[in-house]
Amino acid sequence: MIYWHLFLAFFIPGILGYGGGPASIPLVEHEVVGNYEWLTTQEFSEVVAIGNSLPGPIATKMAGYIGYTEAGVLGSIVAMFASVAPSLLLMIGMMALLLKYKDEPEVKNLTKIIRPVIAVLLGFMTIQFAQESVEGVGPGYTLFLMAASFVLLEKVKLHPAFVIALALVFGAITGL
Amino acid sequence: MVERAGVKNATGRPRRVLYRNIALAFFRTGMLGFGGGPSSIPLVHQEVVKKYEWMTDDEFGDTLALANTLPGPIATKIAGYIGYRIAGVWGCLIALAVSVIPTVVLMIVFLGLLQTYKDIPWVQHMSASVVPVVAVMLAVLTWDFVKKSGETLGWMRAILLIGLSGILIEGLQIHPAIVILVCILIVFSPLLKRRKKA
After folding, report:
1. Chain A residues with CB inside 8 Å of B38's CB?
2. Per-residue pLDDT of chain B in tens (198 residues, 90 and over written 9)
């Protein structure tokens, strides 16, 4: 049963995540935090943070890790399979068909039309994480860290992994 | 249909060597692809077209265009597909495994450490400090998607679609999957109509 749930939780984001890895983050969150309640928002934010700091595709990393925590190695394999296999099999199986239609305006428009939906999902997730942070560490500390990480990420163009590492160190020191 | 051309040197060598090269090529791209899918595409191109000559530039371009029209993470699709093209099902599985498993193991190690010591107060504060940073990362991603929507659809239509999906998903609590499926159906309906006429 758990394997079936894991499969569904990552199959749906895998098949609807138009716009690559980041597009499937809010869809995964919807399943993992909202629907199945395997993780809290705090735990999910750790997964996103560490996932963002490590190389490789984020959607598969999330699937592999959450599958492992919920149902061991087999769970990990099931979740990764669900997030990768459907679109890969489509790609291998429909190569000829897709090449025929790849210049059709509809196919080209698909990502365009779905992008606003993903933007909404990401937007609400942002708000949820900000609220979670205010409840967890207070508004002042939250604002300070948000401002600092925004400057480091966007203005200094520091690598996300370093920003996360700095936040961890800073949090550890202020928590002592 | 694509010619199975770029495999010329794949047939000239023992299979064992080919498998090892596939593993090496995608291990490198997987471990160096910081920042997710799109950042690893130039790395894959370097390995597949320039270094090993498994594919021509045109074939690689076609593969990329195709992968872009399908949902899901781009790096894994490309790795699996190219592995399949040059060495069948085993090639596909090897390319997938080496591009995904190492980073997943790292995830499990790092997050496992956090979970083990999560009852210590300063560790709690340490993990809690990650939440606002992730919120900022998500905010930046949100803005990327909003900006891109505005650029491709025009701001009026983009804002309209954003507002509409906001009402549907958050207001009416409709599952996002259903909203996206409806979008797909709306987009493809003219194509289906055209095919019926033809």
Report:
1. 20
2. 344 444 444 455 567 778 999 999 999 888 876 655 666 777 888 889 888 999 888 888 778 777 777 777 778 888 999 999 888 899 999 999 998 888 899 889 988 888 888 788 888 888 788 888 888 988 988 898 899 889 888 898 899 989 988 998 888 888 877 887 788 788 777 766 776 665
Asked if residue B73 lies in contact with residue A59, where contact means CB atoms within 8 angstroms, the answer is yes
pTM of the model: 0.76
Cα torsion B94, A15, B150, A25 to 10°: value is -70
Helical pair B37-45 and B74-116, crossing angle rounded to 10 deg = 130
CA dist list (Å): A138 to A41, B58, B114: 16, 54, 21
Q: Are A31 and A13 in contact (CB under 8 A)?
A: yes
Q: What angle do CA A74, A79, A82 make, to 5 degrees?
A: 125
Give yes or no for a contact between A77 and B100, defined as CB atoms under 8 angstroms apart. no
Q: Read off the tokens for B109.
A: 């190690």
From chain A, the residues in CB contact with B101 under 8 A are: 64
Helix (H) or strand (E) holding B36: none
Q: Which of B129, B149, B159 to mutate to test the interface with A (most CBs of A within 10 A)?
A: B129
Substitution target from A30, A104, A129, A159 for chain B, most B beta carbons within 10 A: A129
> Which residue among B30, B37, B134 sits closest to A48, beta carbon to beta carbon?
B134
List of residues 6+ apart from A103 with CB closer than 8 A = none
Of A50, A69, A133, the CB nearest to B132: A133
Backbone angles phi, psi at A144, to 5 degrees: -60, -50
Question: If DSSP codes are grouped into helix, strand and coil, which group holds residue A40?
Answer: coil
Please check whether residue A157 touches B, CB under 8 A: no
Place of tokens 């489509």: A90
